[in-house]
TrEMBL record:
One of its GO terms (cellular component) is nucleus. PANTHER family: E3 UBIQUITIN-PROTEIN LIGASE UHRF-RELATED, OS04G0289800 PROTEIN. This is YDG domain-containing protein. It is found in: Nucleus. Residues 43-54, 132-174 have a biased composition (Basic and acidic residues). Gene3D superfamilies: SRA-YDG. It comes from the Eukaryota. Keywords: Nucleus. Residues 42-62, 74-174 are annotated as: Disordered. One of its GO terms (biological process) is protein ubiquitination.
């Protein structure tokens, strides 16, 4: 028996039917949407049919005939003269270009073709109307020309800086290009090569100029300050915070065994260093003038005590961060601080010694005593000199500060302030005198007025000056700076005389000289103190030697 029609059509499983319905819902395409799609497809097919194309061709042909007969072209030249007297003068509607950022409002009225059979008002053809039309057209043309010129100028103005940028960039590239192969270029010579799209030409040119300046600027990242301090009018730039920190200092880990042990059991020396730093902070924070003077006196006491009596080692200095510009001694003397000038000098002296890892506070460090019978003589310790080698053959202050003090003249040689353990003048034949010591011995008729000194040379023979006198004569020709050290052996009536030992009192120049004896070739030299220096420290709170230096000197003298 053949199967029925209903049996020939297999019904889909319920699962597939459910999936199809879900897919239809997910596609968001319902029956209405399918209907619109079908209608749009039919309209598109009809538009491409041959019948529709023929209708469009006939319509276009008719429009061309109307344009030719009734001059319907709105863009036709308005200055063209009519061919016959029956022609109308059609004035086209002025088309006003939209301004920048402003859109023209479109007309809301539908365009209605003009019926040629309709009655039109005749425009009177007069000479004035023709001239008005011509003038307006010329004005529009001139306006357009001005707009084009203005735009051209803007383009030129933009191109010119861009050309300059390219030229400057080439120069920068030449400056950046090393003569020899380098492993790494300095950061100051780097120039960013970026696109100029969207960047104003002025800003781009400025960036290029900045890059050129940066390329020419020397890299001072790894510069170590010189140990020669200039004599300056300003007290703020006289003391240099050394950079970088010394290796012996940075190599000590704050988590090392010694550092951890000091954290658990604080030695008294560390407590003293912390008290010094606390006093610095109090001086910075106080607003009372009376309290500030007391704090300055206390800080002087801390610094002078640390210089003479405080026994420190490298772990203590590192633990207390005494060389740190932010937390240590540099907070007293760095540029921009308001501490007294003498306190800055003394803090800088202590800072220099610790920075060099010269942590022995003994005022006779580096001096070895030799005792032969009843006579004792001193000499420099060669081990100390090799470790802290300092030469006195240099002009200027070096690392010395106004008022720096030594117990003996040999100690001035140890530190390089003077070059002779006994002589009063030290120098070289071609470079003149480097330093002199004012002691007033051997009947010299020296006159010490502080800033002005009349200093006698040494006696020679047969009208020939001595070597030391020649040094001062050479300095008179050169005009170089000479270090002056005053000794306690000066006449006690001399108010500039230090109480004990020797004191550095700054830089002087030979301004004149006279020969006082022909036979011995004796000369008297006038030395004047260089300007811009701190006062001579012979009185007041700034007086040197300090209380602790005097006590230590007397202790060692009694011990001997």
């Amino acid at each position: 028996m053949p199967p029925s029609e209903s049996q020939n059509i297999a019904e889909p499983p319920a699962l597939l039917l459910e999936k199809a319905q879900n897919a239809e819902k997910a596609s968001v395409v319902g029956p209405d949407a399918w209907s619109r799609i079908i209608q749009k497809t039919r309209a598109h097919a009809e538009a491409n049919s041959e019948e529709h194309q023929n209708s469009m061709r006939l319509l276009g042909k008719k429009m061309n005939e109307l344009r030719a007969k009734y001059d319907l072209n709105p863009f036709k030249n308005v200055e063209q003269q009519p061919s016959t007297s029956d022609d109308f003068v059609v004035q086209p509607k002025a088309i006003i270009p939209a301004q920048n950022g402003i859109k023209r409002k479109a007309s809301t009225q539908a365009h209605i073709p003009e019926d040629p059979r309709a009655k039109k008002p005749r425009v009177q053809k007069t000479q004035s109307s023709q001239e008005d039309i011509s003038k307006k057209a010329k004005a529009d043309a001139e306006k357009q020309a001005k707009c084009r010129d203005a735009q051209q100028k803007k383009d030129d103005a933009y191109k010119k800086p861009m050309q300059n940028v390219e030229e400057r960039a080439d120069k920068v590239e030449e400056l950046r290009r090393p003569k020899d192969t380098l492993k790494e270029k300095p950061a100051s010579a780097m120039f960013a090569e970026a696109s100029t799209t969207g960047i104003s030409p002025d800003r781009t040119a400025a960036q290029a100029t900045t890059a050129i300046v940066a390329a020419n600027k020397p890299d001072t990242t790894n510069t170590i300050p010189s140990n020669v301090l200039p004599v300056s009018e300003s007290n703020t730039d006289r003391y240099v915070v050394r950079a970088p920190l010394p290796e012996w200092y940075t190599s000590i880990s704050m988590k090392g065994h010694m550092m951890e042990a000091m954290s658990k059991k604080r030695p008294p020396e560390l407590t003293s260093l912390e008290a010094l730093k606390t006093c610095i902070r109090q001086c910075e924070d106080t607003n009372s003038a009376i309290q500030l003077d007391k704090l300055y006196d206390a800080l002087r006491d801390h610094v002078h005590k640390a210089e003479i009596r405080l026994e420190v080692n490298r772990f203590l200095v590192r633990k207390a961060n005494m060389l740190s510009p932010e937390y240590g001694l540099p907070r007293i003397f760095r540029a921009g601080t308001d501490f007294p000038w003498d306190l800055k000098a003394d803090a800088y002296q202590l800072y220099n010694r610790w920075w060099k890892n010269d942590l022995n506070q003994d005022i006779l460090r580096g001096i070895v005593s030799n005792k032969t019978g009843n006579r004792t003589s001193d000499r420099l310790d060669e081990t100390y000199r090799k470790r802290f080698s300092i030469d006195a053959k240099h002009y200027g202050n070096g690392d010395f500060v106004q008022g720096q003090w030594w117990p003996t003249q040999l100690c001035t040689v140890r530190d390089g302030a003077h070059g002779s353990a006994q002589g009063g003048i030290y120098g070289e034949k071609e470079r003149g005198a480097y330093s002199i010591v004012l002691s007033g011995g051997n009947g010299y008729q020296d006159v010490d007025n502080g800033d002005v000194i009349d200093y006698s040379g040494t006696p020679g023979k047969n009208s020939t000056p001595t070597e030391n006198t020649i040094h001062l004569l050479k300095s008179a020709d050169l005009g170089n700076q000479i270090r002056v050290v005053r000794s306690a052996q000066l006449n006690k009536k001399n108010k500039y005389r230090p109480e004990l030992g020797l004191r550095y009192d700054g830089l002087y120049r030979v301004t004149s000289y006279t020969k006082t004896d022909q036979e011995t070739a004796m000369y008297k030299f006038r030395l004047e103190r260089c300007e811009g220096q701190d006062p001579i420290r012979f009185e007041g709170k700034a007086k040197r030697p300090s209380f602790y230096e005097v006590k230590e000197y007397e202790r060692l003298k009694d011990k001997v």
